[in-house]
Design brief:
Elements (H helix, E strand, L loop, with lengths): L17 H10 L4 E2 L18 H9 L5 H14 L3 E2 L14 E2 L9 H16 L5 E5 L2 E5 L5 H6 L10 E4 L13 E2 L1 H10 L3 E5 L4 E2 L2 H11 L2 E5 L5
Parallel strand pairs: 1-2, 6-8, 7-9, 8-10
Antiparallel strand pairs: 3-10, 4-5, 4-6
Length: about 230
C-alpha cells in the first residue's frame, strides 16, 4: 500500500516510534489523519521499538490497554495541529447493517442474543475486550488481549452447539480507533470452532470485504446478524 505513493509523499515508522510519527506528520504538512489497520498483540511484546516519546507516554499511563495507549497517541497528534478523523471514515458501505445480513429469519434465541450483547458491552466497559461467545445463559469465552480469533478458537472447548458470537463497542467509544472489525479470517475461525451465529453492532462494526464475507457466510451456513448500536 505505501509503495503506491511517491517517496516524497509517504513516511514509514515502526510500531512504537511515536516521535518519528509526529515528525513525519509535520514534514508532510498533514492536516487530517485517520487510523486504520491493526497492531497485533504479539508486536507489543516481540517487535516493539519504542522511542523516547513512546516511553514518556507509557510512563505516565497508570493503565495500559488499547484505549489508554491510543488515546494518548491521539492527544499527541492533536497537539501538533493534526485533526484525527473517525476511523470509520469512508467505510459507510462496509459497516454492519441492522437485521439478518445473510438473509432469512433470525435463528438465534432473542433472549440469548440479549444476554450476549449485555455481557459483551460489560466487558467492553471494563476495557477487557470487544467480544464474547455465549450459549443460552452461559458465557463460554471472553475476548481479552489475545484478540477475537484466538478467543473464537478456544470457545468450543466442550464441543457443544448453539454458540453465539457477539461483537460490540463501549459507551464513549473513542471514534478515532479500535472499532470492531469482522472479516474472512474471523469467519474461517468461527467455522472451525463450530460457531454458526455472529451478532455485530450495526453502524459500529466494520466488515472487511463485506459482500464476500456475507457470501461465504451463507455458503457455510453461518448467520450474521446486525443489532441496534448504542448510537443507532
Amino acid at each position: 500500500m505505501a509503495s503506491a505513493f511517491p517517496a516524497h509523499e509517504r513516511f514509514e515508522v515502526k510500531v512504537g516510534q511515536i516521535g518519528k510519527l509526529l515528525k513525519g506528520l509535520r514534514s508532510l504538512q498533514v492536516g487530517y489523519a485517520v487510523m486504520v489497520g491493526q497492531v497485533t498483540p504479539g508486536k507489543l511484546f516481540r517487535d516493539l521499538t519504542p522511542d523516547l516519546k513512546a516511553l514518556a507516554i507509557l510512563a505516565r499511563l497508570k493503565e495500559r490497554n488499547a484505549d489508554t495507549i491510543f488515546s494518548a497517541i491521539a492527544d499527541e497528534i492533536a497537539a501538533i495541529g493534526v485533526k484525527l478523523l473517525d476511523a470509520r471514515a469512508f467505510m459507510d458501505s462496509h459497516l454492519a447493517d441492522e437485521g439478518v445480513m445473510t438473509g432469512g429469519r433470525c435463528k438465534a434465541d432473542p433472549q440469548v442474543l440479549e444476554f450476549g450483547i449485555r455481557m459483551a458491552r460489560e466487558i467492553a466497559r471494563l476495557n477487557i475486550g470487544q467480544g464474547v461467545v455465549v450459549r443460552k445463559g452461559t458465557v463460554l469465552a471472553v475476548e481479552a488481549f489475545e484478540g477475537t480469533d484466538d478467543m473464537l478458537a478456544r470457545a468450543n472447548k466442550y464441543k457443544t452447539d448453539n454458540l453465539v458470537f457477539v461483537k460490540t463497542t463501549k459507551v464513549g467509544q473513542n471514534p478515532h480507533f479500535d472499532w470492531p472489525v469482522f472479516g474472512l479470517k474471523t469467519l474461517d475461525t468461527m467455522a472451525e470452532a463450530g460457531i454458526t451465529t455472529a451478532a455485530l453492532e450495526a453502524g459500529r462494526t466494520v466488515i472487511i470485504d463485506k459482500d464476500e464475507v456475507l457470501r461465504c457466510a451463507r455458503q457455510r451456513g453461518i448467520q450474521i446478524i446486525g443489532y441496534k448500536g448504542m448510537d443507532g
